[in-house]
Design brief:
The complex is a heterodimer.
Chain A lengths: L9 H11 L11 H5 L10 H9 L3 H5 L3 H4 L5 H5 L6 H14 L8 H16 L4 H12 L1 H8 L2 H13 L13 H16 L1
Chain B lengths: L1 E4 L10 H13 L3 E4 L8 H7 L1 H18 L3 E3 L2 H15 L16 E3 H5 L2 H10 L8 E5 L8 H4 L9 H8 L3 E2 L18 H17 L4 E4 L2 H9 L1 H8 L7 E3 H8 L5 H5 L7 H6 L4
Parallel strand pairs in B: 1-2, 1-3, 3-4, 5-6, 5-7, 7-8
The chains are: A mainly alpha, B alpha/beta.
């Protein structure tokens, strides 16, 4: 029997279930996920509330939340859930759906960082830490903000210390697999358009 | 003994001393690590956060190469290990995900720690210990992705793992109990939500101090970097001073094995462990 008490986007819930698994229907709100979550203190929706909101069709509430972007993917919730709900995977799915919505995310830096990271893999096959960091700081506006606040001094100090200890490789390594990696990205992009 | 090796991107940069100590220690144990030719990045958190296809296909490409060689695949990075295992299970498990990269599932992916914790190496490790880590009080830090989620990692003890603890004992060190073996360091947030990151890593440093440990030992390049390089700024935000050495487990093995170039590894740390080791008469 279908319940009729909730107004909202049923398609949203169907889409989430299809991508994150139908186990979410087994959630009985024990909040074990939220009790063990190391980032709960900074969340606007606790993990068990995210599941409840999905089940109650609260699409906007979930996708505009801060929670989906500050989840650290530590997998504690997934590991401890008594009903085998893959909550960390649910967070991934919600982040992807938020991006697909075309709306501004609550924490724009997070998806920007991931985009920069993936772009670096696409370009070189591997991550060269220094160039990846430089691109991220420039694109995120962090560079400008750090100039204003003086925070750049700390970054330069840390960077210099790491450089002097041989921890920052100046030139990227050559990856012979880069052509194949680019093909994988091309396939991923094609799949998205289809 | 030969195995295939997937170093991961950070071994070429921030985790250089991890790579150097792995090389030294494995040679002494008679293990030949053969780097997978043309290996590429596993995609890490960025791939699984953004795109399911990439999160499976990027590691699968490396697994495919490793299967062609036919030896088991060892990786020292927790994130690489987790993503390689996840891709292997997505393709060869019940889900049978198709990313255009066929896998047989005929090799085993192991994190370096579990590889070296196998029974067959116990005797070899004990034989190599020339300078036991006497009186060195160590808390072991496994972090997230070596153990969680167990359906991906195949970990047997995911809340209270033992491999590092046993190793510390084998090396003659003193295991110190603490409750944060597998608490998250917040590493994935270090660039995007630095306040949250500082609180999570700060909590680990505080607990290690409360447990009266001399140092923390890790098996993950990201955990080590997060714990070691940011102590000054974390201390500054809460008005304390931290100077807790953070070791890779292979560095402690090298130290106990009497490897000569340990100084070269320790010089790369931001919190220099040498004063502590001198005090304990270990160098």
């Amino acid at each position: 029997m279908e319940s009729v008490s909730f107004k909202g986007d049923r398609k949203f819930r169907e889409a989430v279930v299809e991508r994150a698994g139908e186990e979410i229907f087994a959630c009985y709100q024990c909040s074990k996920c939220s009790a063990g979550c190391p980032v709960a203190f900074a969340m606007d929706l606790l993990p068990h509330q995210v599941i409840r909101s999905v089940l109650f069709l609260k699409k906007e509430k979930v996708l505009s939340s801060r929670t989906i972007w500050i989840c650290a993917s530590c997998e504690t919730c997934t590991t401890r859930c008594p009903n085998e709900i893959d909550i960390a995977k649910l967070m991934d799915v919600l982040r992807q759906m938020q991006r697909e919505s075309g709306k501004k995310p609550h924490e724009p830096r997070v998806p920007l960082f991931h985009a920069v990271f993936l772009n670096a893999i696409k370009r070189s096959g591997r991550i060269h830490e220094l160039s990846m960091l430089r691109t991220y700081f420039l694109k995120s506006g962090d560079a400008r903000e750090k100039l204003k606040t003086g925070e750049w001094k700390n970054d330069v100090k840390l960077g210099l210390k790491m450089f002097l200890r041989g921890k920052l490789k100046v030139l990227p390594a050559r990856c012979e697999g880069v052509k194949e990696v680019r093909k994988i990205f091309a396939r991923a992009e094609k799949g998205k358009r289809a | 003994m030969k195995v295939s090796f997937f170093p991961g991107c950070s071994l070429e940069g921030t985790a250089r001393e991890y790579g150097e100590s792995i090389e030294a220690v494995c040679e002494m144990l008679g293990i030949e690590m053969e780097e997978i030719p043309g290996w590429s990045c596993c995609g890490a958190s960025s791939a699984h956060t953004s795109d399911e296809f990439l999160s499976v296909a990027l590691p699968a490409r490396n697994l495919f190469q490793a299967e062609r060689i036919g030896q088991n695949l060892v990786t020292p990075c927790a994130a690489c290990f987790n993503r390689l295992k996840a891709a292997e299970k997505a393709i060869t498990g019940v889900a049978r995900m198709d990313v255009g990269i066929p896998l047989q599932g005929n090799i085993t992916v192991l994190h370096l720690l579990e590889f070296l914790a196998q029974k067959e190496f116990a005797e070899r490790i004990e034989k190599q210990v020339k300078r036991p880590l006497k009186n060195l009080k160590v808390v072991s830090y496994y972090g997230c992705l070596i153990v969680r989620p167990p359906r991906i990692t195949d970990a047997i003890h995911w809340e209270d793992p033992q491999a590092l603890d046993r190793l510390i004992a084998q090396l003659g060190g003193e295991r110190v109990f603490w409750p944060y073996k597998t608490e998250c360091c917040g590493g994935s947030l270090v660039l995007t939500s630095v306040d949250i990151f500082r609180r999570l890593t700060g909590r680990l440093l505080d607990m290690a101090k409360e447990a009266e440990a001399d140092c923390i030992v890790t098996a993950c390049p990201l955990c080590q970097t997060n714990l070691d390089t940011r102590q000054e700024e974390i201390g500054a935000t809460v008005g304390t001073h931290y100077d807790l050495p953070i070791f890779y487990f292979t560095e402690l093995m090298g130290l106990a094995f009497g490897v000569k170039e340990t100084g070269k590894w320790f010089r790369r740390h931001l919190v220099d462990p040498r004063p502590l080791l001198r005090e304990r008469k270990l160098i």
